[in-house]
Amino acid sequence: MRKLYSAAWWVALPLVLGRLWWRGRKEPGYREHVAERLGFYGVRKGDAPLIWVHAVSVGETRAAEPLVQALLDTYPGHGILLTHMTATGRATGKALFAKHGERVVQAFLPYDTGPMVRAFLRHFRPKLCVLMETEVWPNAIAECRRAGVPVALVNARLSDRSLRKGLRLGALMREAAQGIACVAAQTEDDAARIRALGAEQVTVTGSVKFDVTPPDAMLERGADLRRRFGARRVLLCASTREGEENLILDTLAARGPGSTLVVIVPRHPQRFDEVAAAIAARGLRLERRSLLGDGAVAPAVQVLLGDSMGEMFAYYAAADVAFIGGSLLPLGGQNLIEACAVGTPVLIGPHTFNFAAVSEDAVTAGVAQRVPDASGMLDAAFALLEDDEARAAMAQRARAFAAQHRGATQRTLALLRPFLD
Predict the structure, then answer these.
(1) pLDDT above 90 coverage of the chain, percent
(2) Which among 49, 75, 97, 104 is least buried, having the fewest CB atoms inside 10 angstroms?
(3) What are the residue numbers of the active site?
């Protein structure tokens, strides 16, 4: 099976590179460091042993922050090799970890072919491979085993849908799962599904995302944004995905936002212009965060487009209520923990299968409300915005909810310690 998988990679490689170049039209980062994706790297700086952490994109990179910090603090003689697959993930990693200088090395993970992965391992010689969340690459795991590099899957989550896909791949995924030395799963359900794929050493540690601390600078920026928003109530639609903005905007245009300022932050930056055009097409008065500068949002502005990177904590801190995107359509939802950490009441749609346990826990704890559709979301949001007492109670519960789930980073570090000491 793995030979067929590898052959498929080689056959598809021209198309993969073509798509990479095509994506680079809107995101220039995809046209940078292309050689790394093929296993070619420049001269390595320094000779400190490296702990390799793979965080595919923005969400995984931000989730990795407390673990990376803990590894740097616990192993001062080691460096971190932080790899990504997306340009936005790499940019996020640079923003988060540039303060560590050469102790954190960034690179793109090569495509999952034997020769490319072997070249990567020869160049960096990592002491341990740490995969974040759901990143299981069969050839990478096989080559790590061959090179004597233990592989850990941490903050691991696996939905029922992903399990079904994995089981259809049969022996390929079973071999990969059995090649993982240890798994730190987010929940008991995740652990059970990962064991069903064939992984053996699985421990439930919780989600390290609860250990992400809102940076003081972002909280200050959020307070500054709030001042510039004025006295109006603020509804944040965070990490929205393709198709969701249209649902929200159609409903918003039909009924009007009233005195509420609606802030929409699309999940993917390449869609900023597309969403701006959709807002304008519905006759809603638009302001863009990128053009706001140091000025105030005019009272006539109905929708602010959050077309900036790395400011999500600031947006949450500036909002009265936050809807978490990816959940109105069957896309699996997004992380609601950051909103809880700053005490922002949360609304989620019906589709949260990628974050099923934490979403249900949040609803049960009264820090989140589930809504059926875009119309229901706006109904619930406007009701909360008019009820100061209910919002304050949800905010208090949200902070407590985030606090009581912390500690996964240290539990994960304990699992990794035998491979590093």
Answers:
(1) 86
(2) 49
(3) 60
